[in-house]
C-alpha cells in the first residue's frame, strides 16, 4: 500500500513567506501580486506544483488575501489521482497558520494526524491545508480502500459486498497507515465505530471535527448523496433526508467521536474553515500530554 499512498501524496512545501512583501507600503488604494511556484521531481515520476498568488488590494475586502494551489500528478497514472486544492485566507491568517504549524511540528515527532468526524465535516478540506502547512502528506482512507478494492467506489463496495466488508478493508488500511509517519489522514466517517481502529489511530494524534448536523446536511444537499451510501435510504428532499439520516447515525455512534485526542468544535461554521482551530487544538493536546512545554509568564 505504501506505493499507493505515494500515488496520493502531495509532498506539500510551504511557501517561504519572507519571499513576499509583508504589507503594502503605501497608504492609499492599490494592488500588487507576486507569484511563486516550485516544481519538484522525484525520480522523474512525481511532480508537485505549488503556486501561490498574493494579492494586496487596499481598496477591497480581498485585501491581503493569499491563494495557494497545490497540484500533484504521478506519471502514468490517470487524472483521477491528480490532487489539487486551494484555499484563500487573509494574509495574516496564512502567516499565523505557518507560524503555528512551525511551533507544533517538532513536537509531533512525525506522528500522523487522523481527522475524524461525520460525513461532510471538512476532513478533506481541513486535512489538505493542515498537511500543506505542516509539511506532511495528505491521504484519504476512503480513497485507499477504493484502491485496495481495484478502484471500486465506496458506494459500489457497500452495494456489492456490504458494509462489513468495507469496514474490514478500512481497518486494514488504518493498520497499514499506523506504521507510517508524517501523514494527515482524512478518515471515513465511520472509522470511530470500530474499537480496533482506535488502537491504530492512537499511534498518531486524532482530531474530531465536530460540526452541527444542520451544516453537514446543507453541505451534503449541495453536492448530493451519490457517494455516501449510508444516506441512500431516506425519502424526501435532499436536505431533509440527509439531516434525518445523519441524526440517526450520530445517535448510533454515541460518544465514539469523543475518543479523539482533540476536538475542534465548529459551531459557527460559516465564519471559519477550521484549520486554525485544528492547529490550536493539536497544540493544546501536545501541552496536555507533556511533550510541548506550557509557556510560562
Ligand atoms: N468550513 C466549511 N464551510 C463551508 N463548507 C465547507 C467547509 N468545510 C468543507 N466544506 C464543504 O463541505 C463539503 C464536504 O467537505 P469535505 O469533503 O472536506 O468533508 P469530509 O469530512 O472529507 O467528507 P466525507 O467524509 O464525506 O468525505 C465540501 O463540499 C466542502 O467544500
Ligand atoms: O460515516 C460513514 O460511515 C461513512 C463515511 C464515508 O466517509 C465512507 O467511509 C462511507 O460512506 C461510510
From TrEMBL:
<dbReference type="GO" id="GO:0005524">
    <property type="term" value="F:ATP binding"/>
</dbReference>
<dbReference type="GO" id="GO:0009507">
    <property type="term" value="C:chloroplast"/>
</dbReference>
<dbReference type="GO" id="GO:0008652">
    <property type="term" value="P:amino acid biosynthetic process"/>
</dbReference>
<comment type="function">
    <text>Catalyzes the specific phosphorylation of the 3-hydroxyl group of shikimic acid using ATP as a cosubstrate.</text>
</comment>
<comment type="pathway">
    <text>Metabolic intermediate biosynthesis; chorismate biosynthesis; chorismate from D-erythrose 4-phosphate and phosphoenolpyruvate: step 5/7.</text>
</comment>
<protein>
    <recommendedName>
        <fullName>shikimate kinase</fullName>
        <ecNumber>2.7.1.71</ecNumber>
    </recommendedName>
</protein>
<keyword id="KW-0418">Kinase</keyword>
<comment type="similarity">
    <text>Belongs to the shikimate kinase family.</text>
</comment>
<keyword id="KW-0057">Aromatic amino acid biosynthesis</keyword>
<feature type="region of interest" description="Disordered">
    <location>
        <begin position="15"/>
        <end position="37"/>
    </location>
</feature>
<keyword id="KW-0808">Transferase</keyword>
<keyword id="KW-0547">Nucleotide-binding</keyword>
<keyword id="KW-0067">ATP-binding</keyword>
<dbReference type="GO" id="GO:0009423">
    <property type="term" value="P:chorismate biosynthetic process"/>
</dbReference>
<dbReference type="Pfam" id="PF01202">
    <property type="entry name" value="SKI"/>
</dbReference>
<dbReference type="GO" id="GO:0004765">
    <property type="term" value="F:shikimate kinase activity"/>
</dbReference>
<keyword id="KW-0028">Amino-acid biosynthesis</keyword>
<dbReference type="InterPro" id="IPR023000">
    <property type="entry name" value="Shikimate_kinase_CS"/>
</dbReference>
<dbReference type="GO" id="GO:0005829">
    <property type="term" value="C:cytosol"/>
</dbReference>
<dbReference type="InterPro" id="IPR027417">
    <property type="entry name" value="P-loop_NTPase"/>
</dbReference>
<dbReference type="InterPro" id="IPR031322">
    <property type="entry name" value="Shikimate/glucono_kinase"/>
</dbReference>
<dbReference type="GO" id="GO:0009073">
    <property type="term" value="P:aromatic amino acid family biosynthetic process"/>
</dbReference>
<dbReference type="InterPro" id="IPR000623">
    <property type="entry name" value="Shikimate_kinase/TSH1"/>
</dbReference>
